[in-house]
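Hi R.,

As promised, here are both runs. First protein below:
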Amino acid sequence: MENVRCEGSNICYSDQGKGDVIMLLHGFCGSSSYWEQVIPLLSGNYRVIAPDLRGHGASDAPLGAYSVDQMADDVLSLLNALEISECYLLGHSLGGYITLSFAQRHASRLKGFGLIHSTGYPDSEEAKENRLKSVSKIQNEGIFAFVDELVPGLFARGASPQLLERTKEIGYRTPPQGAVGAAMAMRERPDRRDVISAAALPVLLVAGAEDSKVPADRTFTSDKPNVTQATISGAGHMSMYEAPERLAEIIKDYVHAAVRK
């Protein structure tokens, strides 16, 4: 892992391979380690950068509520620090919300963008209430108890215990204040379906056939010609672990098609 200081905050990141840049943004209570099985499958063809988002992994975790826009600006600062003019930005879950904010406000820095088990919809009122319950659990019972409850529901039925344990290990490293800040960022995010429908850039939308967190119909909100839709059979919310070869193949096909255009 490498480290840069962006706007007064330390951002840690993985940087592997050469070629067109693909930046991968992980989900809530994850880290760049979420991509540990996918990066080796991509880095032979592309330069793959995977940061630990604000409040996660080894990056700084300031106190207080975060915003999705603020987290997207961290990504912009990282691109600037690395002197990268353009990239393909792909976000998983929380990372997808950040990707949409970035695409809306910094499209000139993108060659394309995509959502992996994510959505342009905002939180429903029920989901907003559940964010507050998550914050309460983290504050009252700690990050270990929260992650133990969170992780099983991310996977399709029958996921191996080893995958669940690995995902928990990563989640346990989330600073509690980072998890709280990010939960509030997700709660307050706006509806950004129009970012997908109005995009001129190549867009990738990936859903898990067995994803109970973000069902396919909440991911596939546009079927314009520039939008590539892909469903991964047998996967829940965590195809980077459940089907890493298939996910990497989808990403490669998407970037290859985008480059040809």
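And here is the second one, sequence first, then its structure tokens:
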Amino acid sequence: MSSRELVVLGTASQVPTRHRNHNGYVLLWDGQGIMFDPGEGTQRQMLRAGVAAHDLHRICVTHFHGDHSLGLAGVIQRLNLDRVPHPVTAHYPASGQRFFDRLRYATAYRETVALTEAPVAADGPLAATPSYTLDARKLSHPVESYGYRLTEPDGRRMLPELLAERGIKGPDVGRLQKEGALGGVTLDEVSEVRRGQRFAFVMDTRLCDGVYALAEGCDMLVIESTFLDEDIQLAEDHGHLTAGQAARVAVDAGVRHLVLTHFSQRYPDPGVYEQQARAAGFDGELTVARDLSRVPLPKRT
């Protein structure tokens, strides 16, 4: 199993269908689990997908429409029922604090978990860990909505041929990486920058600056494509994207792997989304998300 992969719990917009649960996604990243938009039924989908409460370290809610947040009550209570031993942080639009409060305390339960509330009030950084930084960007939707982006710090890739030219091998390679120089040879002379991986999660929104900022240079972009292109006016009126619009964002932003999701119940054939994304010019890795699927992040270049 990949150490970095997206677990899709649900892909339906507004209402669930026979084959699509309400939204729900978990990004597994180096031993941490980041949940996005837990809609109704998320707790059961976690069970079906093999995701445990103990896997979760962070919850990111884009906005407080029910298909993106009604599962919060069950997820939070499950964290406490299972006595998750580590702190969990919840990010959500600050303007929806009253909704978060109602969902957090929807019914009686015993609190056993340190759940930190970290509401989002503006574009910018939210958290920094050794393996990623988390940022938010405001989107364009009838209610306040934010998208999220993870960026891994850049590292160094050692170049064996240059190491061999300078006679550096065995334990000395590790010493050079740790100390930055060894016997007059600097780390820069025998390595190159290895760009950190980038992941973005973009839900309910029209096209806006925030969409492009989140998507820029991503290895994986998970993005809503509620409508097909023939219904572009409906998408604009309701604050959503079409499959073609999402794909053109990915093309313009240089995205490597595009994941389309959040599908309207009016379209029973998911294959049409792929057709329209390809017609829009996206020729990279493309996944039309299905409930309970697992999508590994692409390998580093």
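A quick note on the second one: DSSP finds ten helices and 18 strands in the chain. Let me know what you think.

Best,
J.
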